[in-house]
């Protein structure tokens, strides 16, 4: 069974600016998890559409209970394929991304469509869809719920990263404050502590039955 998620976003910048920012997203303060990006191929079609495929390497730290199912060298990183097509005539950009690492454990496929906002031609709207699946017997639902929660967090960071890059492109001061940075790090620390506590509790429970 596949878990489906859909949401919409709005960037208060023109479609042209957003397309340029898309290729300049990394690095930004919200994308520390993106380690590398490599273009596999790129071509212009007879209809003047730009087609690209990129390989991204990202950190992919899962909860401790999930790490036991992964080889040690695979538990901290993941490879992502990103296909994109930019249609300058229709003024749309469509992207499709999916993970090629840990796909049997959890597969996340995302489709985004960037187009001009119908109510304001100076803005860009984003329709985002995601399909999350898992083949781990007995843990499918737990893995999918974890994947969905992480995906929603990723969407928030992606939008903030876009806004940061767009502000930098337009000569504005990006609005990432020290307070925001501290809050984010505190949240990450709290989540890590929570996962550690769960792991310790699980180990303690196992000892009771030994």
What this model shows, in words?
The chain is built from 4 helices and 7 strands; from the N terminus they run βαββαββββαα. The model has no long low-confidence stretch (mean pLDDT 85). It has helices at 15-22, 64-67, 140-169, 178-208; strands spanning 3-11, 34-44, 50-59, 77-87, 92-99, 107-116, 124-133. The chain has 2 domains: 2-175, Alpha-D-Glucose-1,6-Bisphosphate, Chain A, domain 4 (2-Layer Sandwich); 177-209. The protein starts with a strand and ends with a helix. The protein has a 7-stranded antiparallel sheet.
Strand fraction band? 25-35%
Helix percentage range: 25-40%
On the 0 to 100 scale, the average pLDDT is 85
Shape: globular
Strand order of the largest sheet: 1-7-6-5-4-3-2
Radius of gyration: 19 Å
Number of helices: 4
N- to C-terminal separation? 35 Å
Region (Disordered): 185-210
Domain PRELI/MSF1: 2-174
InterPro entries: PRELI/MSF1_dom, Slowmo/Ups
Protein name: PRELI domain containing 1a
């Amino acid at each position: 069974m596949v878990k489906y998620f859909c949401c919409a976003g709005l960037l208060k910048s023109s479609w042209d600016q957003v397309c340029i920012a898309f290729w300049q997203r990394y690095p930004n303060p919200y994308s520390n998890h993106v380690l590398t990006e490599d273009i596999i191929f790129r071509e212009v079609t007879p209809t003047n559409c730009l087609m690209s495929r990129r390989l991204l390497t990202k950190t992919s730290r899962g909860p401790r209970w999930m790490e036991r199912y992964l080889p040690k060298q695979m538990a901290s990183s993941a490879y992502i394929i990103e296909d994109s097509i930019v249609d300058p005539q229709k003024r749309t950009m469509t992207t499709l991304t999916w993970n090629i690492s840990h796909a049997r454990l959890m597969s996340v496929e995302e489709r985004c469509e960037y187009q001009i906002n119908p109510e304001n031609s100076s803005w860009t709207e984003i329709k985002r869809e995601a399909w999350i699946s898992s083949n781990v017997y007995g843990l499918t639902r737990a893995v999918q719920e974890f994947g969905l929660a992480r995906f929603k967090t990723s969407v928030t960071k992606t939008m903030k990263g876009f806004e940061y890059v767009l502000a930098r492109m337009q000569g504005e001061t990006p609005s990432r404050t020290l307070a925001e940075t501290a809050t984010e790090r505190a949240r990450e620390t709290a989540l890590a502590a929570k996962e550690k506590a769960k792991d310790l509790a699980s180990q303690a429970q196992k000892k009771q039955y030994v």
